[in-house]
Amino acid sequence: MNKRGRTKLFVIVGISLAILLISGLIAAADNSRISSEVEQVVEDKKDKEISQDIQEYVEEFVEKKEIASEDINNITQINFEDLPKEVAIENVDDTNLAIYQINYNKTSKIQDNLFVITYSVEKLESQGDLIVSQDKREFLNFGFNEESSESEFLRSATEVETSLEKGYVMMRSGSITGISTNLEILSGEGNIEIVIYKNGEPIQFGNTFVVSTSGIEKDYDVQSKDTVVFEAGDIISAYVKVSDGVLWKDATTLVEIIS
Fold first, then answer.
1. Best CATH choice for the domain 137-258 from the list 2.60.120.40, 2.60.40.350, 2.60.120.10, 2.40.30.20
2. Which residues lie below 8 Å from residue 49, measured CB to CB, with a gap of 6+?
3. DSSP string over 152-173
4. What is the pLDDT averaged over residues 3-13?
5. How far apart are the C-alpha atoms of 228 and 226, rounded to whole Å?
6. How far is residue 168's CA from residue 158's CA, in Å, rounded to a whole number?
7. Three-class SS state of 110
8. Which helix (H) or strand (E) element contains residue 75?
9. Which residues pair with 151 in a beta bridge?
10. Model confidence over 27-55: pLDDT tens digits?
């Protein structure tokens, strides 16, 4: 795959932080649609450090946003040490992401900015997802610090045992995006499953262990935002479902939510 096919784009427009994820192949569409005036003004107004690939992306977005070429004032690369207030992104740094600002005249009296944010897929594949700052990542802590051969509801961080009716009450709407579990197997063979409940119903997303020997086990899973959603007032609890004859202890489970 060529270099452009391995590039992704975020575009952040104004303080609303509306985000579009566009593949490099889309951005590499027929450049015959781009006017010569836009091509020339981007060439004239860009920083000298901006590459030809980035210049073509900028030209594409200027056309899509219907910004008149004569209204463009400058196109600059943003310093990560001094991000503008309109751009607030977590889980990235300048090793895998670059931000370019297009300053233009929105009206005869008002200037505005268009931010083109590019990153390398190769550099981010090992890092995971991107979270824009208005999406807050939090963790629900569950645990059990005794030996047991039974299926058990896990306890909250305050040592309260959860149940179908008791657990963490969500204060705003959001999504369940991840779960991780660490526990110790003492003896037996079979399966251990960590089941997450929402309002007393399993959500079909959890951790599973196939038990054949004793020892400490771990498992973790992630999923996309909005796959499993919750509303304000929903109750999240966690349960350990154990096969007969399996002895286990010391379970620690984290449930990741975005709200």
1. 2.60.120.40
2. 77
3. EEPEETTSPBP-SS-SEEPSS-
4. 40
5. 5
6. 11
7. coil
8. strand 72-77
9. none
10. 334 444 566 776 776 677 666 666 666 66
